[in-house]
Amino acid sequence: MTAGISGLLIGDKSTTRPLLVEELTWQQAIDLQTPLRKNMQDSRDKTFVKQLMSIRRIVETVIGQLSERFHIEKM
């Protein structure tokens, strides 16, 4: 799925596996950023995390609108 992608990639909480992050970083030069789970320490800048969450909210809203408009979830 990540073929041809480089740079920043925003994921969800299910992609917080350290092995996946390490593989993407070293093999494909991808900076995978995800929201962390509540029990995990976050050493990132608070402003960056807030901006990341804002972008994710917009993306999820657009996906929801598209799936509703084109009835993608319904077979």
- How many domain modules? 1
* Structural class by SSE content: mainly alpha
Helix tally equals 2
Identify the strand order in the major beta sheet.
Answer: 1-2
Order of helices and strands: EHEH
Sheet-strand content, in percent, reads 5-15%
Quick gist of this model?
The protein is built from two helices and two strands, in the order βαβα. It is mostly helical and 75 residues long.
What do these coordinates show?
The protein is mostly helical. The chain has one domain. It is 47% helix and 11% strand. It is built from two helices and two strands, in the order βαβα. The chain has a two-stranded parallel ribbon. The protein starts with 6 loop residues before the first strand and ends in a 6-residue tail after the last helix. The mean pLDDT is 89.
Q: What's the topology here?
A:
Layout: E1 7-10, H1 18-28, E2 30-33, H2 46-69
Parallel strand pairs: 1-2
Which labels suit this protein?
mainly alpha, 47% helix, 75 residues, two-stranded parallel ribbon
